[in-house]
Design brief:
single chain, mainly alpha, 48% helix, binds heme C
Length: 165
């Protein structure tokens, strides 16, 4: 009888702690996790550190400033970071860590980094070759980019989404 009472009491205390932390928004208990966005990675800090690292060399070609540039050769080093943030991360709805191990930016260990190089080649082919031969378009220079397909998702949709109710 005594034991049962103790267990009852303990679970009541536990429930109280959990609900208090939940209401107060204690991050150790009520953590909201966004997929692909690890809580311990600070993108702004990483970008600031990289900007500091390339200071004074922003206009030099990327391949002279960074260590493993294959597809962005000739692009000013300063622009590479913008492409990483706006071009790649945001259009796929991911953080740098989807393609990189932080502080090992030159490493090719992560599969999506390799896929990205192929995607860049594919986008080039669509823009420079395939789209150019489509007749009757409204734009003079019709273009696609990562956002055209990905729209903030790793896997582009192939169907219209059901209307939100
Ligand atoms: C969707 C994949 C993807 C995402 C997301 C991404 N990168 Fe990259 N990153 C690449 C690829 C691919 C290269 C290599 C480009 C090349 O070959 O020219 C690269 C190269 C780099 C390099 C050059 C490394 C070197 O020394 O060669 C840095 C620095 C870098 N990324 C930083 C970042 C940062 C910071 C973020 C987040 C804001 C980020 N990347 C997000 C794919 C990605
Ligand atoms: C014409 C449409 C299209 C464009 C434009 C496009 N992608 Fe993709 N991308 C896809 C499709 C389709 C997949 C395959 C998704 C799947 O796994 O089924 C994909 C997959 C990927 C993946 C693999 C994701 C993962 O983690 O498995 C990466 C990374 C990627 N794309 C990056 C890019 C980047 C960066 C750009 C811009 C340079 C880009 N894509 C432009 C259609 C596109």
């Amino acid at each position: 009888m005594k034991n049962r009472l103790r267990i009852l009491l303990m679970s009541a205390v536990f429930a109280a702690i959990v609900s208090v932390s939940f209401i107060s928004g204690d991050p150790s208990v009520a953590q909201t996790k966004t997929p692909n966005l690890p809580a311990d990675f600070d993108k702004a800090a990483a970008l600031a550190e990289l900007r500091e690292m390339i200071k004074g060399k922003e206009q030099e070609p990327a391949e002279k400033v960074f260590r493993n540039i294959q597809t962005l050769k000739g692009v000013p080093a300063g622009r590479v970071l913008g492409i990483m943030d706006f071009g790649y991360s945001r259009s796929l709805g991911v953080d740098c860590t989807h393609c990189h191990i932080p502080d090992k930016w030159e490493s090719d260990e992560k599969r999506p980094k390799g896929v990205t190089r192929e995607m860049v080649a594919m986008v080039g082919k669509i823009n420079n070759d395939l789209l150019k031969s489509v007749k009757g378009l409204a734009s003079e220079k019709p273009t696609v980019n990562c956002t055209t397909c990905h729209r903030g998702e790793v896997k582009p949709a192939t169907n219209m989404q059901a209307p939100k109710s």
